[in-house]
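2024-03-11 09:14:02 INFO worker-7 job=invfold-0412 stage=load source=structure_tokens
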């Protein structure tokens, strides 16, 4: 078993595509969460700041769940492998929450009728918030061990390409997830409901992850433990030891983490606020959370149009990611992860500044989202490829889980400070109040620029 661990077989294109399929399903869940959580929670009365606080589910579960699950998966010994139990259970529980989230108001009503108490106006929003926390936690349960599969089963020299196939799956999954409802509307003249889109995501997540669990040839972890004890190059330790030693892996690791910190402030400025930006800035619909139900109904058709537009933009954004994910991996192998990643980050900086300025032009915003997709393809792959060079065998899950802290942690800044800033930047319109959602892109552009500057200091040739 030691020889199998140290001499992994090279992957061909078919094996890479099969390996990435589960992440395609995971991305369905994540994409619905990104695009449609704002319309659902705003309809239940959430202001920009409350919406930001609900989004704290992502960073808190990411900082807590992924490191813990990563460490547990490193030390899981079963005939199903180390990672697969977490992939399947994460997908299954997330699917239940994906169904429940858009039905939060109906669930609140059912509880009130069943137990015979008046329904508080905040109960639906509270249930929705709980469902978002469950969805995010379960996505993290599956995502961390999935990333850890790469150093588990893929040869080190193919890590950049393997992560690029993950980017490809992220892009393709997001394109299909985001594009299905607008396609049905514009081609078949059928408007898919928000609930139906979440059910679609639930099914895709479970089915794709089940396929991955059935087809990935993970080593029997009951035998890995005893074999690894005989191999002095393979390290097994507790999570707390891995946490303490994480920054000692290499002087380059803290630089990669700092780069990720700035990157993900920038990324989440777009992902959290783009749908609200589309509805309220591009289409100039006033804030709906402060309106009466009668006034909200008057904007329902335009809100559907704006939400479909947001989905189209996310589909374009992820289509570009899908198309260039593999070329980015190939270029990174030829010219280095660092150089390619810096170029991609700078392209996203330009796109963000454009969206902040040309915020009333739907065509330009869509084109700038396409430009942002270049950066997304790189962010989804190359930082992980940079880090994987320094991972000690036996700690893959823990290291990827700890690394996720520098993805999840920055989101707290966005969910609190940036959402608070937008809440404070209110202005009056003839139809009601609105907010400067475009300000999020100025903050995002600044942070992505800082990420690119940090990347300059990384020395990839030093371990």
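2024-03-11 09:14:09 INFO worker-7 stage=emit residues=463
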């Amino acid at each position: 078993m030691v020889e199998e661990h140290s001499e992994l077989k090279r992957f061909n294109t078919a094996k890479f595509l099969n390996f990435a399929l589960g992440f395609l399903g995971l991305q369905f869940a994540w994409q619905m969460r990104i695009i449609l959580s704002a319309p659902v929670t705003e309809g239940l009365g959430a202001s920009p700041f409350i919406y930001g606080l609900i989004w704290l589910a992502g960073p808190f579960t990411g900082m807590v769940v992924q490191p813990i699950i990563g460490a547990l998966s490193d030390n899981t010994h079963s005939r199903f492998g180390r990672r697969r139990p977490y992939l399947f259970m994460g997908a299954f529980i997330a699917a239940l929450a994906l169904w429940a989230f858009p039905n939060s108001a109906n669930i609140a009503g059912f509880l009130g009728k069943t137990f015979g108490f008046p329904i508080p106006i905040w109960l639906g929003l509270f249930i929705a918030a709980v469902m978002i926390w469950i969805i995010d936690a379960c996505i993290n349960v599956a995502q961390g061990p999935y990333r850890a599969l790469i150093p588990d089963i893929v040869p080190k020299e193919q890590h950049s390409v393997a992560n690029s196939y993950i980017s490809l799956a992220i892009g393709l999954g997001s394109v299909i997830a985001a594009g299905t409802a607008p396609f049905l509307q514009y081609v078949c003249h059928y408007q898919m409901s928000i609930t139906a889109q979440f059910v679609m995501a639930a099914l895709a997540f479970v089915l794709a992850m089940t396929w991955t669990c059935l087809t990935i040839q993970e080593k029997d972890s009951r035998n890995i433990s005893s074999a690894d004890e005989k191999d002095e190059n393979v390290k097994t330790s507790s999570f707390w030891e891995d946490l303490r030693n994480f920054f000692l892996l290499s002087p380059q690791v803290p630089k990669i983490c700092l780069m990720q910190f700035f990157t993900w402030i920038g990324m989440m400025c777009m992902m959290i606020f783009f749908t609200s930006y589309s509805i309220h800035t591009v289409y100039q619909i006033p804030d709906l959370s402060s309106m009466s139900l009668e006034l909200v109904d008057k904007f329902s058709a335009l809100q559907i149009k704006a939400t479909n537009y947001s989905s189209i933009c996310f589909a374009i954004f992820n289509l570009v990611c899908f198309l260039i994910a593999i070329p980015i991996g190939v270029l990174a192998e030829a010219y280095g992860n660092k150089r390619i990643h810096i170029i991609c980050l700078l392209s996203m900086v330009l796109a963000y500044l454009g969206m902040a300025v040309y915020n009333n032009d739907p065509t330009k915003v869509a084109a700038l989202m396409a430009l942002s997709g270049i950066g997304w393809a790189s962010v989804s792959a190359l930082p992980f490829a940079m880090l994987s060079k320094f991972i000690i065998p036996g700690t893959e899950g823990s290291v990827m889980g700890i690394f996720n802290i520098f993805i999840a942690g920055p989101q707290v800044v966005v969910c609190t400070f940036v959402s608070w800033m937008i809440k404070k930047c209110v202005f009056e319109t003839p139809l009601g109040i609105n907010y400067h959602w475009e300000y999020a892109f100025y903050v995002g552009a600044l942070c992505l620029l800082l990420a690119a500057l940090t990347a300059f200091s990384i020395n990839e040739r030093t371990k």
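2024-03-11 09:14:09 INFO worker-7 stage=report msg="Confidence is low (pLDDT under 50) at residues 1-5, 224-236."
2024-03-11 09:14:10 INFO worker-7 job finished
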